[in-house]
Amino acid sequence: MGFKITDHSGAFKAKLAIALDKGMGHLALDILNLSRMQVPHKTGRLTNSSVITRKSPTNFHIEYNTEYAGAVHNINKNYRNNRKWHYLIDPANSLVRDKEKYIKQAVGSI
Predict the structure, then answer these.
(1) 27, 33, 62, 67: which has the fewest Cβ within 10 Å?
(2) What are the residue boundaries of the structural domains of the chain, listed by start?
């Protein structure tokens, strides 16, 4: 009498990788959405230049593509209407603390 153990984890590992990527993608999108609510707004050009780029699985890059995005991000001025400097790093820092929640939610869908 014997017992055979067969590894069928390949399909699960593939689904897990997709779920992790999906969770991190949702996190990146939420960071961008929160950031867009905080970015200083004069003409809308800075807000409209925001993009998320998927560099590799579970690796996303969020940026604003104007020549003045870095200066606006790093200079403290008296912005109005809940707009502020550090409009990208502050939302990222606040939401990255909850990245496990995004991962659990995505993995729970497997």
Answers:
(1) 67
(2) 13-107
